[in-house]
Amino acid sequence: MIATRTDLAMEAFENTDGxxxxxxxxxxxxxxxxxxxxxxxxxxxxxxQLGKPKGNYLTLESRLLRERDPDARLxxxxxxxxxxxxxxxxxxxxxxxxxxxxxxRSITPDSLGxxxxxxxxVTRHLLGGPLQNASMKSVCAIAPGVLGVTGIxxxxxxxxxxxxxxxxxxxxxxxxxxxxxxxxxxxIQLTDxxxxxGAGVGNHRKALTEQSVGAPVISVGMPTVIYAATLAKDAFxxxxxxxxxxxxxxxxxxxxxxxxxxxxxEMIVTPREIDAIIQDAAGIIASGINRALxxxxxxxxxxxxxx
Length: 307
Fold this sequence. Notes:
globular, nine-stranded mixed beta sheet, single chain, alpha/beta, 20% strand, Rossmann fold
């Protein structure tokens, strides 16, 4: 049986049949039309079964985002800002927060991180200068690119910058892969476990965690792709359910080996409207980040500075 790949903790839990799992607490609720799922992984065995590190995972989901509903976008940005503010460390409040936009600008589904950095309000260079605003918090941001372009691991760059900047927290943004294609473009995951750059496009790099960079790492991501093998698996499951029996399982295994993971490597799929999805997602996530990091600014002031 081929593995089902997902970066969302809620989907990893669903893949275990959704029943009780020792070491995992799951909660569901809704607010302002946004479905919220919290997954808390508390022990190593549960982390191994889910394939996710121990920690807290919060998923915000609104299918109206795919319809570009303005009210849904505002509600998602506001809720994301509230949740980010809740998990940001309170110690060293005057130290900067470093926003890291992971991904490749040249590959649309992988460009979410750089797009968010472009719209993040950076203020560290203003503090202490003539344009200083006493109500603003110190924020810096970087889009380190990818190893194939820079020749430098993202983790190496972030680790070096963290030693110099000494941030109170590092906020990483990256594209993710979903198990369910309906979650692409309408789901945001927030976690305090750090992040593994490139996971969303099948290009796993060294992890960015508090242990590796020396500061708490909070990650925010949105699914922008799904593995082709996952779609094929769903198609064969539908055939099995309609016709009965498991006769299609061997065909699925063979197709994955010969067509989907052949000489070109694992294939991923993204919606044809991915350009609009990335543009909208970058705006929503950047707005949430700006709200959390600049609580003294009004929504109107943040929107004006982002445009």
